[in-house]
Amino acid sequence: MPTEHPVWTRGAFTVTTDPARLDLDTICAFLARAYWAPKRPRDVIARSLEHSIAFGVFDGPAQIAFARVISDRATYAYLADVFVDEERRGEGVGTLLMECIMDHPSLQRLERWSLATRDAHALYRKFGFQELLRPERHMEIPRRD
Which of 8, 70, 115, 136 fits a disulfide with 79 by CB distance 3.0 to 4.6 angstroms? Predict the structure, then answer.
C-alpha cells in the first residue's frame, strides 16, 4: 500500500503532502499575491486543502512553494494554485514540485490532467501538458465578483 503522505527530498528541499506540515498562513499569503486568487478567503483556502492532494515544498522549516491537485484518483486531475515564493524562483523549485506531483502514487495512470495558467506554459510543457486539442468540447461557468 502506498504511503498516505509521501515525502520526497532533493538537496535542502523536502516535498510532502502531509496536511500537518502545510503552513496555512504561508499558503494564504502566497494566494493573496497570486493573480487568480487575491481575494480568496482563508476559510475557502482551508476547505480547498481538505478536499485536494496538497503539496508543500520546504527549505528546512520554511514553506517555499505549494500546489494542490483536485482528483478522483482514478481518471482525472486538475492542477491548481501552484506557487513558488518570489524570492526562490529560478532555483528549480517549480520543476521539483511538478516532478513530485507527477510521481504521487495516487495520481498514476489517470486518463486526463488539466490546468489553467497565464504565464507558466514552458514549465508545464516539460510534463506533457499542451493547449486543448478540442477547446470546443470544454465548457465552464465563470463566476466573477
Answer: 115
